Every structure is written in C-alpha cells, then in structure tokens.
Amino acid sequence: MSRLTFHHSLILAIALACTTSATFADKLVLVAGGSKDAVNIPALEAVLKEPFGTEFDSEGNMWIVEMVSGNRLLKVDSTGKLSHVAGQLKPGFSGDGGPAIDAQFNGPHNLAVLPNGNILIADTWNGLVREVDVKAGRVAPLKGYATPLDKAKGSGPYCITLDFTGTKLYIANLRQILELDLTTSNLKAVAGNGQKGVPQDGDLATEAPLVDPRAVAVDREGRIYILERNGNALRVVEKDGRIRTVVNASGKKGATGDGGAAIDATMNGPKHICVDRDNSVLIADAENHIIRRYVPANGSIQRVAGTGKKGTAGEGGDPLKIELARPHGVTIHPKTGELYITDSYNNRVLKLVK
What we know:
Elements: H1 3-23, E1 27-32, E2 41-42, E3 51-56, E4 62-66, E5 73-76, E6 81-86, E7 110-113, E8 119-123, E9 128-133, E10 138-141, H2 152-155, E11 159-162, E12 168-172, E13 177-181, E14 187-191, E15 213-218, E16 224-228, E17 233-237, E18 243-247, E19 272-275, E20 281-285, E21 290-295, E22 300-305, E23 329-332, E24 339-343, E25 348-353
Antiparallel strand pairs: 1-25, 2-6, 3-4, 4-5, 5-6, 7-8, 8-9, 9-10, 11-12, 12-13, 13-14, 15-16, 16-17, 17-18, 19-20, 20-21, 21-22, 23-24, 24-25
C-alpha cells in the first residue's frame, strides 16, 4: 500500500470512528410532557402537572402519577397516546369502591405496578396505598397498611416499591421501612426503630434510627436500599439484617464525589432510587438536579445525567449536558433496560437512549 493510500485509509477510519461515536452517543429524549392541557392526545404534546413517578406494566404501557398539582394517574400506551385513568385535579379523599376516574387522591408521591397489571398508588397525604383495578376501572384501599390521616404528612407512604417477585411491597414513610406481604397482608418493619437519627454501621436495621427514609428499593439478592432526604445518604440493609451507609457517610449537603468513592460523596435532598439490571442503584439527587449511580461492585458513584444547574436546556442531547429541575423519579424499563427520568418540575418524562 502506498503512503498516500495509507494516509487516506487512516483518515477514513478516523472519520468513520467519529461518525459512529457521534451516532451512538447517549442522549436524553422527551417521551412525555408538552403544552396542551388535554388528554387522549400524544404524550409528547400533553401537559403534565408535577409528575413524581413513572413505571411500566408487562405490556409496555407507561404509567405516570402526579403529585398535588395533578393528583392523577396517567397512562401512555404503546402508540404514545396519553390517557387519564384515575384521580381528579382537586386533592381529597373519595371514590373507594367506585370509578377510578372520579376518585380523589391527595399528593401521591409514587406508584408500583402489580404482576396482574393493577396499579398501586402511594396516596401519601391520605396515609394509604390505593389499588387501581385497571380492567374494572375501580379503586380500593390496599389491605394491610394505613396511616392515621392526621399523621399522613409526617409518616404517610412516600415511596412504595415491589420486590422482584412482585409479592412484597416495601414502604418508606419518613420514619421506617415497612414490608407488606401481599399474599397474607402481614406488615412488619425491616428498618428503623421509629426514632430519628443516624444509624451506625453494623447495627441491626430494625433497632437503628433513621433520619428520614424517603425512598426504598430492593435488589435481586434481597438487599434493601434506603434513601434519606435530609440525611442526604444512601444506606443498605444487608441480607443478615444489618445496616450500613454506602453513599455520603458525612450526611452533608453537596454535589461532590462523582467518579470516586461513594462513601465520601455528598448529595442534596435526594428523593428516589431504583435498581438497575446489574444491581447498581440509580439516585434522583433532586435538589442537585442530577441523576447518579451507586455501583456496589466497586463502591463508586457516577453522574448519569444533569449539569447540576436547574433549567430546561439540553433536551435531546448529551445526558451530562442537560438541565433538570428537581427530578423525583427514576425507573428502568423492564424489557429494554432503558432509564426513564421523571423530571418533576420541568413537568416532563425523559428517556436515556444509547
């Protein structure tokens, strides 16, 4: 091969590599949230009102729950059309036993999808978990769990998460982590003694205090991850029932540590977590306006999305160059493994496309 031909071949190879890199670069794209205050239209066009959580059923439908500005349960089907399934805009408590569309919720913070396709709603400020029977179009309280209405804002269900068998529901109520066996309706505490404080590494989780458990998720091996909002920390209950801190031992507010040891990192008012396919933990670090990943295999923390500046810029581009606004939800699509971010105060849902 001549030097000229070799030179041209090298340039072509570099160009192709760059093109391939650019073509397959990660990007965050909009999947729901627009400017039309209507339903039964494309989700990309429909206004969302303070979305807090996003989950998927086995048929690939996306379900969105809105907090107190909306109090609605929304469905985005496989064609991308958004419909209104349950809840009225005005907060309240009504509708059990009746049509889900006429029911009232009060500040729901989270949701979970049962194996049968029904939707569980953390009706936070009503102190209940309520089940929407999707096929029948009815709503009813879930048996086995309730918080007195006068205590709901301080200890209602702020996060509900199913284990990977779909038979146990974990509830974070700002005081403890509870486990509800859906086959027996038996409820028990699995972390937190009801007192406010920082747990010591190695303590039995049920005997240790917690600062304010805001979210919970269980990995495929049975570890229970607990996210604390004002504790600014991620903790784990190991299979032996003992608790330890894995992100932010100091508990200080901040946004430091990406790329390094998670135990030395700081967070600021994190609100939600989910477990990825590799058992790493995705964190909606809400008041930092970023999404992060804790990697148990090496104890590191990584930034996944967000510049750290509150805003709207960057949609459709590099996840690390997009601006978010207090994201309160992260979830992994059960079939594709794609990350979905509920960008709550930009009133949109984003998907990370690789």
